[in-house]
Structures are given as structure tokens and as C-alpha cells.
Amino acid sequence: MAIWHTTFPLDEANRRGQDCANGHLGIELIEAGEDYLKGRMPVDQRTRQPAGVLHGGVSMVLAETLSSWAAAYVVDPEKFHCVGQEINANHVRAVKSGWVHGVARPLHLGRTSHVWDVRIQDESERLICVSRVTMAVLSTPNRY
């Protein structure tokens, strides 16, 4: 059974991300499955640290981007919105070039919080980073 409140709008989400951190770092959402959201990000001059490998903080940006978008479409957007509450990451392998792919899957979808597991792999499917993101689910104020 799909976790999405409505069909996940990949094109709209990518369009909305073009002029912010997502676009500046080359993050693209590429697939919304029944219970996951997948994205990719280049490892290039925008995303590497001075030592020439993917910056760990940028891996966390990918993890939070995937979790935030996923959480936003699990809830009813007329009633709720989600904000990042906590993130942690373990960086397990360096990568110098190519693309990394992240997959966010829910560990917990509660009434007031979500916990997302994000696995980031290189093009050879080697684990680069594992992250856990907690999202707070907040009531959207009445706009009237």
C-alpha cells in the first residue's frame, strides 16, 4: 500500500527546488515508489569538500531534502506541514566523482512525527552514508 496522501508530483517538486539549495547542488528527485522516495546528486565542484571528496554536510542536505519532500506528501497538506527536527548521519565511504543516489524510507509515520531512514550509495551501489531524519508534523493554521 502506498504511503502517499496524493500521487507524488516529481516534476513539480523538482521545479520548486530549482532556485534553492536543491538546484544549486544539482539534487533531482527521480522516483517515488510505494514506500520510498529516490533522488540523486552529482559529486562535482559544487558538492565536494577541499580534499576532493563528497562533503559530508552535502550528503546530509540530500538526506534532509528526500525526507522533507517525502514527509510533505505523506500528510494531508490542507491540514498539516512537516519540518525537520533532527538529523544524524554516518559517513562510511568517500566518493570523488559521479553520482550518488539516496533512498528515503519511513521507519515511523506517526501523528506528530515521522522518522525516515536514508541510504546514500555511489554508482556501484556501495554505501556512502546512512542518515536518520526526524520530521515534526505540525498543524497548518487556518488561512481564513
Automatic annotation (TrEMBL):
Keywords: Hydrolase. One of its GO terms (cellular component) is cytosol. GO terms for molecular function: 1,4-dihydroxy-2-naphthoyl-CoA thioesterase activity. Residues 52-129 form the Thioesterase domain. Belongs to the thioesterase PaaI family. This is Phenylacetic acid degradation-related protein. It comes from Sulfuritalea hydrogenivorans sk43H.
